[in-house]
Amino acid sequence: MRRLSLATVGSVPPAARSALDPRDLTIGMVHLGVGGFHRAHQAVYAEDAMTAADQTGWGISAVTQRGPRVRDQLHPQDGLYTLAVRDTEDVRYRVVPSVREVLDGPSETDTVLDRIADPAVSVVTLTVTEKAYRLDPATHRLRTDDPDVRADAAGRTPVTVVGRLVAGLRRRRQADAGPLAVVSCDNLNENGMLLRRAVADYCTLLLRDDELAGWIGESVTFPSTMVDRIVPATTDADRAAIGSMLGLRDEAAVIAEPFSQWVIEDDFRSPRPAWEAAGAMLVPDVRPYELTKLRTLNACHSLLAYLGGLAGIGTIADAVAVQDLVAAARRLAEVEVRPTLPPAKGIDHHDYVDTVLRRFANPALGHTTSQVAADGALKIGPRLLDTIADALSRGNEPRIATLAIAAWLRHVVVRRTDDNAPLNVDDPAAAAMRAAAQGRTDVTAVRPALRAAGICDDLLEDRRFTGLVEYWYVEFDRAGTVATARAAVE
């Protein structure tokens, strides 16, 4: 079967073709972290914005962060790929043309830096995952003692996100290429502020370059954003189905749900795409939307992943089908999270919760519990711990949020389902947490593991928190996951 490319895109079924000719598009954006989410989200908004505004100057130079796999998928296809949008009843396909260049960050760093310094580029976006920012979990500042961060600052070819970004900004300053917006699209509270602060720390504390830091402060903005779309991993069966529809082989295809949301802080000194014409919201303050999503959608996602994993359930949709588990998620959102949220214009929280749980129930996505449960140590802070701290400050009992923490701990420390099947855990703090537990998996492992994961002393010293976590941790072992979730809701 021939492969999707500029040479073959003319044979794509008309319903899946873009209104844009990819040959007409020029590069105006750089994106760091060209995974499936970017291809299903920001790259689609870029296409829709160009179509709506009749523009062609917002093509994307997409950069891989950890290796050439995605480049090698997209490069033979001239950046083209298929997005399959699935709901419970049908699938809609579109070939997305907005990625016009694919670079491997580790091996093509110099070209990446030139792109960031290109005067034609005025926006850099990022989806690099929470852990790639190298932030201290307690202070949320750049870990300036991180060996890779320090090596980047010492002058080697940069490998970290902040090191690579600052090197590009330095080159842009030298080229007098004008202002730039750096737009984080990762699931971090106030992601723009955190990235801006990490860049400033790198410049002033490691590079000792106050002039560069000053130029960045004057010329570069870091708008915060909230992004939302469920994008499961693409399977061989998915690629086969898309190939059958296209009549072409597509090694870079992505799958997504119909729902998509992007809220962007309106803080730009440089030109940008007309994202609002594509359905994005440009607002003065992203925080209410960000907190709503992180503490409601992301927290419920994590809860269902941890509970589902312990119960031996493979997908989020199957976890939602268990009444006691979905009841726990609803209680978390409506009883524990809702009182901690500021108003978000245009969002009714009860309707939002209904929409979230309906999206999770979409069986066409096949989103696995293990995929959502990954990197828990980096996710539990904004998703769960902040809600717990706010609830305790109000004198409320965070039963379900602590249930989620206990379930995460059993994933990392015990690594077994209720039926004693092994659980594969991908968590950056796992080794430190198990070392702190000293081989124990009973309740005495809870506090040492939490401390090793970087949980702040204020929570560790609050028996309202640790007492609940320890209680649920024991109950999972005694009664099983579903019964424990049921008891937590009662």
Structure description:
By secondary structure, this protein is an alpha/beta fold. The chain has 2 domains: 9-283, NAD(P)-binding Rossmann-like Domain (Rossmann fold, 3-Layer(aba) Sandwich), CATH 3.40.50; 287-489, N-(1-d-carboxylethyl)-l-norvaline Dehydrogenase, domain 2 (Orthogonal Bundle), CATH 1.10.1040. The protein has 21 helices and 12 strands. The strands form 3 sheets. Strands 5-2-1-6-7-8 form a 6-stranded parallel beta sheet, with helices on both faces. A hairpin with a 4-residue loop joins β3 and β4 (91-96). The model has no long low-confidence stretch (mean pLDDT 96).
Outline:
By secondary structure, this protein is of the alpha/beta class. It has helices spanning about 35-40, 40-55, 70-75, 110-115, 145-155, 160-175, 190-205, 210-220, 235-245, 285-310, 315-320, 325-335, 350-360, 370-375, 375-395, 400-415, 430-435, 445-450, 455-460, 465-480, 480-490, and strands at about 25-30, 60-65, 80-85, 90-95, 100-105, 125, 180-185, 220, 225-230, 255, 260-265, 280-285.
